Amino acid sequence: MTAAHVRRWREHRGNTGQGHLYQGRFKSVMIEEDHHFLTVMRYVEANPLRAGMAQQAKSWHWSSLGGAPGSDPTRLQLANWPVDKPADWPQRANESWEDKLLEQLRVSVARDRPYGDDRWTARVAKRHGLESTLRDPWRPSKSQKVER
User: Fold this and answer.
1) Which residues of 125-147 are buried (b: 16+ CB within 10 A; e: fewer)?
2) Handedness of CA 62, 65, 71, 76 (dihedral sign)
3) Are the CB atoms for 36 and 116 separated by under 8 Å?
4) DSSP 62-85
5) What is the pTM of this model?
6) pLDDT tens string 36-58
7) Alpha-carbon dihedral sign for residues 49, 55, 58, 62
8) What is the DSSP string of 14-25?
9) Cα–Cα distance between 124 and 29 in angstroms, integer?
10) 3-state helix, strand, coil in the chain (%, to 5)
11) Whole-number Å distance between alpha carbons of 16 and 117
12) 104: helix, coil or strand?
């Protein structure tokens, strides 16, 4: 049954041979504080903007921003957040990103690295056996190797 679903889905979208259907689509990353959570959610809800799929984050048809204050009241909010959304949340989701912050978030998501301040991240990674998420995943070049 699952194989038939995947075949139909891929045929309909014309993307055969691109790995598992739902591979890499969902992540679970530990987050330090409320403001870190809001940064992560802003990153998620701004995806349509960065991808050039919408002029505003809330105007993307499949946006999770629909339940934010000041947005379309006919949209259903998927789940309650563990923190209150700021009143100006739709505007915050549309703000531009600092390159450094965007890179930190992308590395955290790509490597399943805890997201927060550096000291907290190192402490939590050690406590949960996630030290490998802090290291560069690539082998150092020969010029960087330490002689023994």
Assistant:
1) beeeebeebeeeeeeeeeeeeee
2) positive
3) yes
4) T-GGGGSTTS-TTSPP-S--SSPP
5) 0.70
6) 999 999 998 898 888 888 888 88
7) negative
8) T-TTSS-TTTTS
9) 11
10) 45, 0, 50
11) 40
12) helix
Mean pLDDT on 3-18: 74
72, 80 contact by CB (below 8 A):
no
Tokens (6 digits) for 105: 């978030």
Residue 147, CA distances (Å) to 137, 143, 144 in order: 21, 10, 9
pLDDT in tens, 59-71: 887 777 755 555 5
Is pLDDT of 23 > 80?
no
Type of residue found at 7: R
